[in-house]
Amino acid sequence: MTSTLRHPKNDAAQATPRSLTSRSLHWLITLLVIFQGLLGYANLHVAWFHERLATGMLVHEEAGLILLGLTLWMLMLRWIEGRRPADGLSKRQAQLAGMMHAALYLLIFIQSALGIWMMGLLGRGLTLFFWHVGLPITADPRLVFGGVLQIHAAVAALLAFAIVVHALAAFHHHFVLRDNVLRHMLPWRTVTSRIASSR
Ligand code: HEM
Ligand code: HEM
C-alpha cells in the first residue's frame, strides 16, 4: 500500500538495516532514559519517593549504570556494523540526524559521568547488584547540593528536549515523508528482509 506513496529517494534509506540487537537496544535505552528522568525527579520532589530516598537512589544509580553499559554497547555495534546516520537522506538531513544522534549519545555519557561523580561526592561509591566499588573521589556532599545536582537536572532537561526533537523528526519521516526510517528501528519489523526477498 505504501509503495506508491513512498518518496522516490527513500528506497536508499532501506539499504542498510540495523541488527535486531541494535534496534532492541535503542528502545531499551529509550525506556531507561525516560525511567531515569522520572525516578530522579520523583526521588527529590515527590513525598512518597523522598521518604524512601536511599532505595530510590540505589535504583536510579543501578539503572543509570545499566543504561551507560547499554549505550556503550549500541555505540560499539554502530561502529562494528558500519551504520551511517540517516542513510539515504539528503546530505543536509543526514548531517542534522548525525548531529542529533551524537548529541543524544553525548548527553547520556555526560549525565552518567555527573551521576558517578555525585555518588563519589556523597561518599557512597558505586553499587551494581552484588558488586560494590569505592570511588577515588573525596566525599563532599555540599558540592552535590550546591551545584552538581543542578547541572545534572539541567542535562536531564536538555536530554528531554533532544528526545522530543528526535522523536518528532522520526514521526515527520513516517507521516510526512512516508519513508522507512522509523519502521527500520522497530524490533519486530523486517522491512529489509521483505525488500531483499523481492529483489
Ligand atoms: C531516550 C530516547 C532516545 C534516545 C536516547 C535515542 C537515541 C538514538 C540514537 C543514538 C540513534 C542513532 C543510532 C545509531 O545509528 O547509532 C537513534 C536512531 C533513531 N531513533 Fe532514537 N532515541 C530515542 C528515542 C526515540 C523515539 C521516541 C523515536 C521514535 C518515536 C526514535 C526513533 C529513531 C529512529 C527512527 C532512528 C533511526 C534514524 C536513522 O536511521 O537515521 N528514537 N536514536
Ligand atoms: C540518562 C541518565 C540519567 C537521567 C535522565 C537522570 C536524571 C536525574 C534527574 C532528573 C534527577 C533529579 C534532579 C533534580 O530534580 O534536581 C536526578 C538525580 C540524581 N541522579 Fe540522575 N539521571 C541519570 C543518570 C544517573 C546516574 C548514572 C547516576 C549515578 C551513577 C545518577 C545519580 C543521581 C543522583 C545521586 C541524584 C540525586 C538523588 C536521586 O534522585 O537519586 N543519575 N537524576
- Ligands bound, unique: protoporphyrin IX containing FE
Overall pLDDT confidence: 86
The percentage of residues in β strands lies in under 5%
Instruction: State the separation between the terminal residues, measured CA to CA.
Output: 18 Å
From the coordinates shown, what is the CATH architecture?
A: Up-down Bundle
**How would a textbook summarize the main sheet?**
2 strands, antiparallel
Order of SSEs, N→C? HHHHEEHH
What is the CATH third-level topology name? Answer: Fumarate Reductase Cytochrome B subunit
Strand order of the largest sheet: 1-2
Strands, count: 2
How helix-rich are the residues, as a percent range? 55-70%
Instruction: Tell me the number of structural domains.
Output: 1
> CATH homologous superfamily, by name?
Transmembrane di-heme cytochromes, Chain C
Structural features, described:
- InterPro entries: Cyt_b561_bac/Ni-Hgenase (IPR011577), Cytochrome_b561_oxidase (IPR052168), Di-haem_cyt_TM (IPR016174).
- The chain has one domain (16-198): Up-down Bundle (Fumarate Reductase Cytochrome B subunit), CATH 1.20.950.
- Helix content is 68%, strand content 3%.
- It has helices at residues 20-45, 47-50, 53-81, 91-121, 141-177, 191-198, and strands at residues 126-128, 131-133.
- A hairpin with a 2-residue loop joins strand 1 (126-128) and strand 2 (131-133).
- Helix 1 (20-45) packs antiparallel against helix 3 and helix 4 packs antiparallel against helix 5.
- It binds protoporphyrin IX containing FE (2 copies).
- One protoporphyrin IX containing FE binds next to helix 1, helix 3, helix 4 and helix 5.
- One protoporphyrin IX containing FE (HEM) binds next to helix 1, helix 4 and helix 5.
